[in-house]
Specification:
- The mean pLDDT is 84.
- The protein is globular.
- It has a two-stranded antiparallel sheet. A two-stranded antiparallel ribbon has the order 3-4.
- Helices cover 41% and strands 9% of the residues.
- Strand 5 and strand 6 form a beta hairpin.
- It is mainly alpha-helical.
């Protein structure tokens, strides 16, 4: 699979990219930070360290009991993008019944072996159930280690058989099919599912008008 070139620096006026969280697993949500993989210009959502920090927070992988963003360095961002592509290639190869690239396996294993996020309970107040938060000495790398471990467990476990690619040919998102009948076709009905419905309706309308 082709390597992804570094994106151009974001314009200060560009809106923050929206992260899709529809994969059903942290690792699948993480590989979705690069969209439109099949096109000439992939959509890089991790455009800068702040974007990675925002993804970590929105993914629920923020370490600490405050709302301060995770500190992310340029090296953390470079590592995240490289790990993301190794994760993607590893999962896709496993889905297709192919032998993954040993370099990708080594990279994912190396990341998964690093200290990950430790779950912690906040001291209870007023008898309420204590909420969960994460703790780590290095929150950014620990969040990525947690994602890598999730990918190892997914690629090496029985749930891999339920990972699918969205049937929209223009969409590259992967998801875990947790539907009862295992017939989910789209990354999301709000995204590609509705597009397919509209396209089908227009096609039927054109066919009817040509009769």
């Amino acid at each position: 699979m082709p390597r992804v070139p570094a994106p151009p620096p974001p314009d200060a006026t560009d809106p923050a990219p929206v992260f899709p969280f529809i994969g059903g697993r942290p690792c699948l949500n993480f590989v979705a930070t690069l969209g439109k993989r099949h096109g000439d210009t992939p959509l890089e959502r991790l455009r800068d360290p702040a974007a990675l920090a925002r993804w970590i927070g929105e993914a629920g992988l923020h370490a600490g009991d405050d709302d301060e963003p995770v500190h992310i360095t340029d090296d953390d961002l470079s590592h995240a993008r490289t790990l993301r592509e190794a994760l993607y290639r590893l999962v896709r190869a496993s889905m297709d019944g192919l032998t993954p690239d040993p370099a990708d396996v080594a990279r994912v294993n190396e990341a998964a072996a690093l200290p990950d996020l430790a779950p912690q309970l906040v001291e209870p107040h007023g008898g309420s159930l204590p909420p969960l938060y994460w703790k780590a000495d290095r929150p950014g790398p620990a969040a990525l280690a947690t994602v890598a471990r999730d990918a190892v467990l997914l690629a090496g476990g029985p749930l891999l058989a339920r990972v699918k690619k969205c049937e929209n040919p223009d969409c590259s998102l992967l998801f875990l099919d947790d539907s009862q009948a295992r017939r989910r076709r789209w990354c999301s009905m709000d995204r590609c599912g509705n597009l397919a419905k509209v396209a089908g309706y227009r096609s039927r309308s054109r066919a009817a008008s040509n009769r």
